[in-house]
Write a structure and sequence with these properties.
The protein has 2 helices and 2 strands; from the N terminus they run H-E-E-H. The chain has helices spanning about 1-20, 40-70, and strands at about 25-30, 35-40. A two-stranded antiparallel sheet has the order 1-2. The longest helix is centred in the C-terminal third of the chain and has 31 residues, at about 40-70. By secondary structure, it is of the alpha+beta class. A hairpin with a 2-residue loop joins strand 1 (about 25-30) and strand 2. About 65% of the residues lie in helices and about 15% in strands. It has a domain at about 40-70.
Length: about 80
């Protein structure tokens, strides 16, 4: 099973490297008056990392709210 994981990770790394090497041309992204020009592969990596950060934060907030709601004392007195 460990070898399957290693092969899958290696295949993913190879696919990412191929994507990065094929997308070296610079593209410009505009958002709220800001302009950012960089290679497409770098912009995809930045968006991916921002998604990981915001997704992890959102998931933590949902877990925290869920656990807080489960720990509330019963106000009905039963």
């Amino acid at each position: 099973m460990r070898w399957v994981h290693i092969v899958l990770i290696a295949a993913l790394v190879v696919a990412i490297l191929i994507f990065a090497l094929q997308n070296l041309e610079s593209v410009t992204v505009s958002f709220l008056g800001f302009r950012f020009a960089a290679p497409l592969a770098i912009q995809v990596a930045i968006v991916y990392l921002l998604g990981m950060i915001s997704g992890g934060s959102a998931w933590s907030l949902v877990r925290w709210a869920w656990q807080g709601a489960r720990q509330q004392p019963d106000v009905t007195g039963t």
